[in-house]
């Protein structure tokens, strides 16, 4: 007389033991979602086929774009007059004591200065160490880059380069 072996199933059992034939006695257990929220009504567990034009159905706002991509798109929208013809210069390495008058005198050695703007800290009202100078002609600007780049102004080595938009 053969004795039947009692088998206990625990919560950790994955599949029931196989029969003599090698097949399991019961169907495999259904996979459960780990989500605590109930599944949406009328939906099947299989994924829906997606059409190529359809985007995600997320209701969260789209991610914000950062960096240079935004500035490039703005520069395309500008008219030809707003683009740098070559007479706008970017000056860095300035002392905090440099004023627009000092900068205008410094650049007038190489050509006629159209406009000069020293960028100030809004709270302290002192120079942030860089400025923008617009020369009258492109040749004046090239001459400034050639002769004033890496020169000393009020004890500081200044760099002069063409503005990049």
UniProtKB/TrEMBL annotation:
Residues 87-165 form the RRM domain. Keywords: RNA-binding. Residues 1-95 are annotated as: Disordered. It holds the Pfam family RRM_1. PROSITE patterns: RRM (PS50102). It comes from the Eukaryota. Residues 74-84 have a biased composition (Basic and acidic residues). The keyword RNA-binding applies. InterPro entries: Nucleotide-bd_a/b_plait_sf, RBD_domain_sf, RBM, RRM_dom, RRM_euk-type. One of its GO terms (molecular function) is RNA binding. Residues 85-95 have a biased composition (Polar residues). Residues 47-73 have a biased composition (Basic residues). CDD domains: RRM_SF (cd00590). This is RRM domain-containing protein. It comes from Digitaria exilis.
């Amino acid at each position: 007389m053969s004795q039947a072996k009692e088998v206990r199933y625990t919560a950790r059992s994955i599949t029931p033991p196989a029969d003599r034939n090698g097949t399991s006695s019961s169907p495999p257990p259904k996979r459960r979602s780990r989500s605590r929220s109930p599944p949406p009504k009328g939906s099947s567990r299989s994924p829906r086929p997606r059409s190529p034009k359809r985007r995600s159905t997320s209701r969260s706002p789209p991610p914000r774009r950062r960096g240079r991509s935004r500035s490039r798109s703005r520069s395309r929208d500008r008219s030809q007059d707003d683009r740098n013809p070559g007479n706008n210069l970017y000056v860095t390495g300035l002392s905090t004591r440099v004023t627009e008058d000092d900068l205008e005198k410094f650049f007038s050695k190489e050509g006629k200065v159209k406009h000069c703007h020293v960028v100030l800290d809004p709270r302290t009202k002192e120079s942030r160490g860089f400025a923008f100078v617009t020369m009258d002609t492109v040749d004046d600007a090239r001459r400034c880059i050639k002769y004033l780049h890496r020169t000393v102004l009020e004890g500081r080595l200044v760099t002069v380069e063409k503005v990049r938009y």
